[in-house]
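User: Show me a protein chain along with its predicted structure.
Assistant: Here is one chain, sequence first, then C-alpha cells.
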Amino acid sequence: MHPLDNVIWQALTTRQTHFAEICGEARWFLRDITLLSAFREPTDEGYDSLAELAGPGGTAALFLDEPYRSRPGWELLAGPPLLQMIFESGSLPASVSADSTILELGKQDSPEMVDLATITRPGPFGTRTHELGTYLGIRREGKLVAMAGERLKVPGHTEVSAVCTHPKHTGHGYAGVLMTEVMRRIIARGETPFLHTREDNPRAIELYQRLGFRTRLRGHLALLRRNQSGIAL
C-alpha cells in the first residue's frame, strides 16, 4: 500500500498514533484536534467500530475512494468530491514577498485560527489542530488574515492544510507565500508535501498546480453524523 492510500488510517497507525482514539477497526483524531476519522476498510465492521467511537450524535469526517453509500444509523451531512494532490515539481517556485512578515502560530493564536477557519472553511479545524505541525500566518493591523500549516503525517510525506485567507484580504498572494514556506520546511526534512482539496474549487487547484502539485487520486469526503438513536432513519 502506498503511504497516501487510506491516508487518515495510515497517519493514525504510524506517525500520529499519539493523537488517536481507537475502537476495533476504526480510529479517529482527538475531537479537539480535528474530525478526521478512518477505518481499515469501509466494511460493516469498520462502520460499526466507528459508531462505537462516535456514540449518539457524534460526527466523523472520512476520506472514501467511492461516494458514500447510506448506512443504518448515519446521516450524511456533506459528501463533496475530493482530490489528493502530491508535489512532484522537484523544486519550489521562487518565493514572492507578501509585503507582510510570516509568523509561526501556536496555542496563543488558536482562537483566531479557529475563527479564520470558521469563516473560510478550509476543512475540519479544532482548538488543538495547531499541534499537528508547523502553522504559519500573516497578520494585518494585528489581525490574523491568512494561514497555512501541516496536518496529516505518514512515512515520508506531510500534508499541507488549512490554507485560507480572510475574504477581505484576498488578492495579495498570501496563500502562495505561506504554502511555499510550509513546503520548504517539509522538503528540508526529506519529506514530500501533499494536500487535499475539493474538486469544485478551481481557483485553489490552479494555485496548487502552479506550486508543483499534480492530482494523485480522486475520492470523496464524507461528513457523517451518528443518529441520536443509533438506528436508521
